[in-house]
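We emphasize that the prediction below concerns an isolated chain of 187 residues; any contacts that depend on oligomerization or on bound cofactors are therefore not represented. The input was used exactly as deposited, without trimming of termini.
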Amino acid sequence: MHKDKRYEKILSQINTKLSPYAKENLKLKIEIINNENHYGAFIKAALSAIELNYPHEEWSANYRELISQPGDALQNIDHFYQSLSQKYGFPILPRATRWRNVNKLSYITNLLLKDGRFQEAINVARRWVGYRPNSIDAHQSLAQALQKNDEISEASDVLKKALEISRNQDKSKTAAINRQLAELKLN
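Result of the prediction step, given as a token string:
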């Protein structure tokens, strides 16, 4: 493409036509993707555009680092996402769950429980339940955090909600929830 002067003219025209759409929070670039079919070029271009406008190093929150900072774990996570939301001009929320990734509220709930930070675990688990109200796992984790914080009555109520969800969604989890409820009653 660099050898043929027609392409330079076309690229310049495209740049001129696109430049009015570039804004502080929307960057544009023209990129030549060599040796790709249409589909391959589109995928590479889409990934390049995402990285250009939403850089991984800026968007990839390290939840373990955030909760190790002074202050409340959930407030630290919220501060990160509020700053990101403000910069980009639209709401950006923490991940509740994500397969095989520690940067999610579900993992952080369990980590806070292991660290004995029960009230913070409750707050994070409540947010997880808020984002995923039909998640059996979220309700069970919230109940576990409440139990560790000696809030047995509320833990029981949360488990009853998890039991109701499991009957409609995944009956294979009802036995585990019933065991968790029985354990609460022993305490």
